[in-house]
Amino acid sequence: MKEKKEGITMEKLIIIKYGELTTKKENINLFITTLKQNIKQKLCAFPVDIKFDKGRMFLRILNEDFEKVISQLKEVFGIHEIMIGYELKTLELEQIKQELLSLLETKPFQTFKVETKRSNKKIDKTSIEISSEVGGFLLKNKKEIRVDVHHPELTIYLELRNNESYLYFETIKGLGGYPVSTLGKGMLMLSGGIDSPVAGYLTIKRGVKLEALYFESPPHTSMEAKNKVLALAKELAKYNNEIKLHVINFTEIQEAIYKNIPHEYLITIMRRMMYRIAEILASKNNCKIIVNGESIGQVASQTLTSMKAINEVVKIPIIRPLACFDKLEIISIAKKIKTYETSILPYEDCCTIFVPKHPVINPESKTCQEYENLIPYKDLIYKTIKEHEILKLGNSKEENFKNLL
Ligand code: ATP
Ligand code: MG
User: Fold this and answer.
1) 364 vs 135, 268, 302, CA distance in Å?
2) 28: phi then psi, degrees, rounded to nearest 5
3) N or C: which end of the chain has fewer CB within 10 A?
4) How many CB atoms lie within 10 A of CB 372?
């Protein structure tokens, strides 16, 4: 929205600060252009024009949907802060002061401070000098206001950049992290539990684009259990620019394990099979890592000895973002990202059917191998991968439009 007054154009826009991205030196362009693409995809339902430099991104929204745009931007990693601001095509302090005064006409406040940032070093005044000059001007021109540098009701941010200056009064916290895809792809083992969606969220935060993998065992696991996973994948898709979900039918493998292998080793062997399948799907889909929600000591299959026996069947790195988190810490993130309520719905997962009374907590690799040789697991794995289902969920153009209605 442009307003023209006495020769200067003042335009309302959204300003984005990148945060941790600015520590990247030679790669910074990749990070910023990826962020721009991600924002464009997220905002595909809005008429928006995006420009950027190494310090800021500027979004011009061609209608007045600032609130809706901001709620979408709060789901984009790589954004440190979001501001609704005004761009003035001038660096002249006299003009800036007049425009500021007109902006403040409708803002009730009694105490204030001015904070100036001057990235254009050709300006011959320091930031502090500019702040005090602008502050002094406001004191002269507005009644009953005073400066409070510690707890002001209103902070006036003034940024002087190349040929433009920017005014804003409030900053909204973004999610931080890196833009999705800047660090490549990973394969998330996504169950219907509390942990794996949280592990996924934390991994996306570090710039890894996720595909997800769910093992189902119909008829032992229900359609409701699968729907729960679809709902969780959709929640994650908000941060991931949609998500590809691989659904593996695990029934034959699980039944073969149950019928042929001593029960204390059921879970260990089942998880070794899951890892093998995850590694194959990861490599077929260009994923450099597997991600899961394991947490040290949480259950028998997550003791250090168990993790070693399970991990040794694959070469691909396994990232366990929750390895050292307490359950309560995990739950508090699950609530924040709104996956908790879905995760606690009471449908059986393939890990919770066929649970042995006394699962081994110190499994031995040699024993695992001996037991595995009792079943034709390579054939079973090949078959289930060949037949597996692939779904694309969330954040498509149509869904973004639907969300706005
Ligand atoms: P909970 O919150 O109940 O612990 P969970 O999903 O973490 O749920 P675990 O038995 O602790 O369940 O499993 C450890 C990890 O293994 C999960 O976080 C998930 O990454 C993976 N996993 C377990 N079951 C499945 C499944 N059916 N499909 C895909 N991944 C699974
Ligand atoms: Mg768990």
Assistant:
1) 72, 10, 14
2) -60, -35
3) C
4) 20
Strands (E), 47-184: 48-52, 56-61, 79-88, 111-118, 146-147, 154-160, 165-168, 172-176
Cα 310 to chain centroid, rounded: 28
Lining residues, ligand 1, CB within 6 Å: 189-191, 193-196, 213-215, 292-294, 298-299, 349-351
Contacts of 230 (CB under 8 A, 6+ apart): 245, 391, 393
pTM confidence score: 0.92
List, in order of start, the domains of the chain with CATH numbers.
Answer: 2-173 (3.30.2130.30), 185-402 (3.40.50.620)
Q: In a mutational test of the pocket of ligand 1, which residue from 277, 332, 335, 351 has the highest number of ligand atoms less than 8 Å from its CB? A: 351
Convert the pLDDT of each residue in 175-230 to its tens digit: 999 999 999 999 999 999 999 999 999 999 999 999 999 999 999 999 999 999 99
Pair of tokens at residue 230: 């679809």
